[in-house]
Design brief:
alpha+beta; 2 domains; seven-stranded antiparallel beta sheet; 7 strands; 23% strand
């Protein structure tokens, strides 16, 4: 095709097609929506893979914490205490000397007669108190009376467990 043929072919183009070709292309409107959906999917994935209850806290950060003295307290009641304990929730079971204790709640203080009786081990432990919660392994266990156990948390609050099986 020589230049004369090309010029002649351009002459056959409709003026509307030439006007449309001169207009700048507009971006599709769905780009923002697609980015928003992708961002929401990423946030959801992070929330599923790292639930709030398991972030921050655990046996490595709590193992070396000094236990608060019996009778010590922190401001706030049991309901506000549960909300301020990342990584620790009032759930789980403790086994000690053939007895089963269920963790019930987070409390501000323990009875004055409470005394330390050992350190929580993993469920596979053969001696001493053991638990099914990895986050509590390595924390000291305190007893008050025959039916209550307490576990001090690093913030000064306590997990309370009650005897469920004699």
């Amino acid at each position: 095709m020589n230049p004369d043929h090309l010029l002649q072919a351009i002459g056959f183009l409709d003026d509307d097609l030439i006007a449309e070709a001169e207009e700048p292309l507009s971006r599709p409107r769905f780009r923002f929506a697609a980015r928003a959906v992708a961002l929401a999917a990423c946030v959801l994935l992070v929330l599923v893979l790292f639930p709030r209850g398991r972030m921050g806290g655990g046996s490595s950060s709590a193992g070396g914490a000094a236990a608060p003295a019996p009778g010590s307290s922190s401001p706030g009641g049991a309901s506000s205490a549960a909300a301020s304990e990342p990584g620790f929730s009032p759930e789980g079971t403790i086994w000690l000397d053939g007895r089963t204790y269920t963790i019930l709640q987070i409390v501000d203080a323990v009875p004055e007669d409470a005394h330390q009786i050992g350190t929580l081990g993993p469920l596979s432990a053969t001696e001493g108190p053991s638990t099914d919660q990895e986050d509590y392994v390595g924390l000291p266990v305190w007893a008050a009376g025959e039916t209550e156990l307490y576990i001090p948390l690093p913030t000064g609050l306590w997990l309370e467990a009650a005897l469920t099986e004699p």
